Amino acid sequence: MASAAPQPDPTLPKRRTWTRFLIRLVLIYAVVPYVAIVVIAIMAQRSLIYRPTKVKSLSVEGVRRSGC
């Protein structure tokens, strides 16, 4: 005769393990902000690129020399 193992009560909340808690903590406080920053950088990439303009001559008026 085989005896069946007792089944847990489905109405009781499941116990959380520390590893699951730590994984959730890392996801919320490390991965989510990192992904958000990467997405913002990707979306703003075009506006972050510096495109210089060409001029015929450079003006040196108002430029101070440092260290002299």
Topology diagram in text:
Layout: H1 18-43, H2 45-48
Backbone shape: rod-shaped
Oligomer: single chain
Q: Percent of residues in helical segments?
A: 40-55%
Order of helices and strands: HH
| Tally of individual helices | 2
Show unreliable segments: none
The share of residues in extended strands comes to under 5%
Class by alpha and beta content: mainly alpha
Mean pLDDT: 80
Major beta sheet summary: none
* SS elements, strand count: 0
Termini separation (Å)?
99 Å
Radius of gyration: 31 Å
Labels describing this entry:
68 residues
Task: Give a summary of the structure in a few sentences.
The chain contains two helices and no strands. It is an all-alpha fold and 68 residues long.
Structural write-up:
The chain has helices at residues 18-43, 45-48. It has 68 residues and is mostly helical. The protein has a domain at 18-48. The longest helix has 26 residues, at 18-43.
